[in-house]
Design a protein that fits this description.
Layout (H helix, E strand, L loop, with lengths): L1 H33 L6 H27 L13 H30 L3 H22 L2 H4 L2
Helix pairs in contact: 1-2, 1-4, 2-3, 3-4
C-alpha cells in the first residue's frame, strides 16, 4: 500500500520535475539570447522551485530504495542488469543531476551580469536534464 503511494508520487513528480527543468532550460536560453541587464524575480523563483522539486523527488526515490520489492542488495546484484539499474545506476545518476542543478543555481548567484547568470543556469540545467532523461526507466514509466 505505502509502496504504491510513494511509487505513484515519484512517477507523477517525475513529469512535473522534467517539465519544470525543461522550462528552466528554455527560459534561461531565451534570456541569455536577449542579453537582458537584470534577472527577473519570477524566473529566479522558477529556477529555485525546480531545484526544490528535484530534492523532493530524490527523497521519494531514496524511500523507494528501502521499500521497493525491485531492489535487492544480495550476491549477484551487480551481475543482474535490471537490479543494478534500479539499485545503483538510476539513483546515482539522479543524485548527480540534482547536484548539477544545485551547483548551477549557486554559480549563477556569483556571476555579475544577468547574461552570465542565465548562461550558468542553462549549462548546468541542460546537462542535468539530459542525465535525467537518459536515466529514467522509460519502459516502466510508459507501461
Amino acid at each position: 500500500m505505502m509502496y504504491n503511494i510513494i511509487q505513484n508520487a515519484h512517477s507523477g513528480f517525475m513529469w512535473l520535475a522534467v517539465a519544470m527543468l525543461a522550462l528552466s532550460v528554455v527560459f534561461s536560453l531565451l534570456k541569455m539570447m536577449k542579453n537582458e541587464k537584470t534577472i527577473s524575480v519570477p524566473l529566479f523563483k522558477l529556477y529555485n522551485y525546480t531545484k526544490q522539486l528535484l530534492y523532493i523527488q530524490f527523497v521519494l526515490g531514496v524511500i523507494l530504495l528501502f521499500i521497493s520489492p525491485l531492489v535487492h542488495y544480495t550476491s549477484g546484484f551487480m551481475k543482474n542488469e535490471a537490479l543494478r539499474f534500479q539499485g545503483l545506476e538510476h539513483p546515482l545518476m539522479m543524485l548527480i543531476a540534482i547536484a548539477l542543478v544545485a551547483i548551477g543555481l549557486f554559480k549563477s548567484k556569483t556571476k555579475a551580469t544577468s547574461g552570465q547568470k542565465n548562461k550558468m543556469v542553462f549549462i548546468f540545467y541542460s546537462i542535468a536534464l539530459l542525465v535525467i532523461l537518459l536515466m529514467v526507466p522509460w519502459t516502466a514509466v510508459l507501461s
